[in-house]
Amino acid sequence: MARILGLDIGARSVKALLLESTFRGFTVRSFTEARLDEETGLKGALASLQANKHLAADQVVVAVPGCGVATQVLTLPFADARRIEATIGFEVEGQLPYDLSEVVFDYQPLSSKDGKTEVLVGTVRKEVLTELLETLREAGVDPRVVTTPAIVYQNVFAAGHGAASSPGSASAPGASGAAEGVEAIIDLGHERTSVCIGHAGGGLEYARTFGGGGRELTRAVANEFKVSLTDAEVWKETEGDVTLGPDTAPEMERAAAALLRGLAPIIREIRSTLRAHQARFRKPLTGCWLTGGTSRLKGLAALLSRELGVEVRELDALPGNGGSPVPAESRATAGQAFALAMRGHGMARAGRFNLRKGEFAFKGDLDYLRGKVSRLAAFAAVLALLAGGFAFSQLHVLGKREKALDDAMCEMTTRVLGQCQRQYEVALNMLKGTGSAAASLPALSALDLFAELTNRAEKTKVKVNEVEVQLERIRLRGETESFDGVDQLVGALGEYPCFDEIKRGRVQKSRDGTKVEFDLDIHVNCAKTAAPQEGA
After folding, report:
1. Main-chain dihedrals φ then ψ at residue 298, nearest 5 degrees
2. Which of 7, 44, 111, 504 could lock onto 62 through a cystine, CB 3.0 to 4.6 A?
3. Is residue 168 predicted with pLDDT exceeding 50?
């Protein structure tokens, strides 16, 4: 069993959800939230979690806090994965206002159609990622995965858990949408808003994070009533309501109007994000799910339903309400921590987006494996057992094949030699021995002798006009430019062991006196030559 920690670093608190992963599923073991104060900030919250041993896990998954990651969708004119890997860096660099060496990026294919691929790319400045990793390292945390706040929600789509897990309920992403439609998860935090669009089974189609959230609502209330941000925040969390009705008190109506003014730019960005997805992918939006700290604002789901023209419900991604370690009041804000933990759980159909690449690559795999020695030993024993069984089966098959070959050898030698012989070397010697049929075969054929003759004659300045080749004798007639050419040919032929004796016949000048005509009579004896020489 592996313990996976989803660490959600927000603007006002750090949420840590511990998930226990097994081969058959997972179980949520604990959930803790540590507030960030003005003095110690993130380091103080992490130190508090570490002191209470809430950060102990086999692996940790985090998202870059704030709006540190910029995401965009690129269209590539090919679908081959190797070509995408080879060219994505140039495409990303063309979209950046600074050098590619200053950022870390990763990508995830979204869809492929008509030979084109839609790719979602996320980039983060190296100094932002370095600062995050150093802060976590000071707290004793080395995350295996660093992802983006929006993309990580694809793991919720893959998990398929919702607030009401009873049969027939439409509480989980993908439960109520049409087969060709998509759904959106909207995470309204304090400083940022993330939108993830996908469908059941983990299919991600769009993801975006932009600035704006509960902080803008707090400022709107503080400006309206001329109070401090702290007082406005407390009132928003306890009394905030965007519901307007005929019986609404004047003060509450003023407060609701202020909240609506703060929400206006956020809703506008959400609406533009949904429209951008629809313009690119041409798929209808069948539902929205709302999570994050600001999602607890009263009447927000109904307001977004009217503004977006689609039903918006509160997301409860955690499985099972009864007996859950997550308090009821925190389930709406635990969505991202759960999604991060599910990323470590390794949903098979979820993406593998991870910003820990290159110089920032995770190097703690050996430490993780060290704690799993017993499981690895069991795996090694199973593999050794399987290897032994495989070797035994191979030996059994080879034994049957060897017996079949021996039987075939016995049958052949009985037919040729008149006796059964199963040893290959012995049978071969009997076939080649004196008195055997093979012994009457010449060591070299006439073609072999002719090839050897022509090969050696080509090395001299001799023109061969007539050749008569027999197994025991070769007659040769030709011409050359001088008497030395005849000597060179005789010397070249004499180097071959089978040409036992070379006799010169007529050697004289031609009628016009320009050439030397000659005859050679070569005696062939290959008794001492078992096989043709190299080059024959």
Report:
1. -65, 135
2. 7
3. no
